[in-house]
Amino acid sequence: MRIPRQTVLAAGAVLAAALIGSSSMPSATSEPSATSDVAVSVTPERLNVVGLPCFPGSLNLTMTNTGTMDRYADLTLEPTGPLQLSRTLFSSWLPAVDPDQPVSAPVEVRVPRDTAPGSYQLTAEVDRKQVTVPVTVDPLPPKGPGDNLALGEQATASSTHGNFTLCGAVDGDKDSEHWDTLTGWNDGTRAAFPDTYDVALATPATVNRVELYTLDSARYPARLNGLRDWDVQVKSAGTWQTVAQVRGNTAGHVTTTFAPTQAEAVRILCLDGNDHTYSRIVELEAYGS
Ligand SMILES: [Ca+2]
Asked: What residue range is the signal peptide (predicted)?
């Protein structure tokens, strides 16, 4: 069974919807060729990010040719301070069609873990016209006793299905009804097991409990689509060891406890799914005692 994905667009007001008719806007540097018939929008109109490796902020860039001439356009992105962007250029051919045809592209925004919380911004520019997006860097979430040590930490997997995101299983959202908004990991090797999903902890920590949320929604119940068999492993002094085994699962949420173990990373070794097709994890959490 293939589970369709819906396009994810963050809801938000369209920012600076019209950079149109710029010939009427005085500019010391403008020239006739700088006249813009390209409408630019960035959604959401402001962004919050946090310095966790698997917790990027995401923006959607859109350009629309509102004029009557086919043209090519370059949208350039300029970050300030510590902001790191997955792209700084979005170029596209923009045919003049009626109705107007928007062209969109995503950009991920990250900051290093040690970034000071505060206010930053990035600027999107087309035809010398700018749209500014405020970016707030939030404090890191606590990672002490009782906190989810896996939240937002670097995930790696044996494979990831092209319709899903690697970091979806450590994004803090464990609601299977949000599966279509990429809040989960789905491996990319159909009907082939095992698959692995690892999360590297920020610093080695004692772990004695893992909470695994596999796909279990009204449309895709766990007994049909969830993870069935897996081993829980922790990496200690560079070596993976199995600390628990789960077999024949049909539940959406499984708590696994084991002897406190010093862990650098946590792994789910996926051995089978209830549809024998894919491994699906909506959220993986790790806790110490
Ligand atoms: Ca999730």
From this structure: 1-28
